[in-house]
Amino acid sequence: MHNYDFTEPLTFLALAGLMFLMVVFRYSLIAGIFYLVFYKANPKAFRKRKVQPLSQNSKQFKTEFLWSTFTSLFFALAGAGMVVLWQKGYTTVYEDIAAYGWVWLPISFLIAALIHETYYYWLHRWMHKPKVYRLIHKVHHNSHITSPWTSFSFHPAESVLQSAIIPVIILFLPMHYWTIVALLVFMTLTSAINHSNVEIYPKGFNKHWLGKWFIGATHHSLHHTEYRFNYGLYFTFWDKWMKTESKKFHPGFEENTKKPI
User: Do 222 and 248 touch, CB atoms closer than 8 A?
Assistant: First the structure.
């Protein structure tokens, strides 16, 4: 990779094109597996695990895939930009694991995920301001009942905002390039889990000492139906600290009377 100058327009476009194919493949593979398992192979087997009544809405799936294709393009451009920054020496990305040791790999992954969580939580809350919501975030919420294909279904402006954080992180946080790849796969996988409309975590997982900190389909589905709660990405801690976690996620809730946007 160091043999190519990715600041050259044609080389950069070739890199971005390759990245685009990789992002589309990653999204299609992970979302497609969830779709085949929960929606096609034996949907009756997961009937009790459905969060919302499951509807086979092929028009919605096609729309979600279309928006996700645009999202993949912007994610690819961000990825290509990260390679240019790395090649120019502006990042802290490294190639030799021995430089920081094996222990730093999971630590850097966790730190990056926590930074991403923090960025997304506050970005998400901002996107729910009425004017911003109507311009940008409504596209994602058009999927009132989510599906695995919803996971990348964003307005282009939201795609740009979402793709901005990882390039910033690698400017100051030392990360091995395979750790970055793992984080991107984790992002896609958790998004498919959260939007699948089928709860894959065990019953009572939200009350477990560890499980209560992770977002699943039940937690995020409440965001798509209540709008003003459950803004998190991977973890629930910001929602808990900021009192924005839906009471319906806990036993003995009181019915929320607020109306969605």
Answer: yes
Structure tokens at 248: 């319906």
Tell whether the torsion through CA atoms of 95, 18, 74 and 26 is positive or negative: negative
> Angle between the 9-35 and 177-195 helix axes, to the nearest 10 degrees?
40
Going by C-beta distance under 8 Å and a sequence separation of 6 or more, which residues neighbour residue 197? 38, 50, 51, 52, 54, 145, 146, 147, 217, 221
Hey, what amino acid is at 72?
Answer: S
Polymer length in residues for the chain: 261
Q: How confident is the model at residue 8 (pLDDT cuts 50, 70, 90)?
A: confident
Alpha-carbon dihedral 108, 79, 138, 35, rounded to 10 degrees: -80
Alpha carbon of 193 to those of 20, 189, 201: distances in Å? 22, 6, 9
Q: What is the full DSSP assignment across 134-162?
A: IIIIHHHHT-SS--GGGGG---HHHHHHH
3-state DSSP call for residue 94? strand
pLDDT at 219: 94
Token pair of 71 as six digits: 């999202």
Q: What is the pLDDT of residues 175-199, one digit of tens each?
A: 999 999 999 999 999 999 999 999 9
Nearest to residue 68, comparing CAs of 134, 132, 158, 199?
A: 158
Structure tokens at 89: 């020496």
Q: What is the DSSP code (8-state) at residue 198?
A: B
Distance CA 166, CA 176 (A): 13
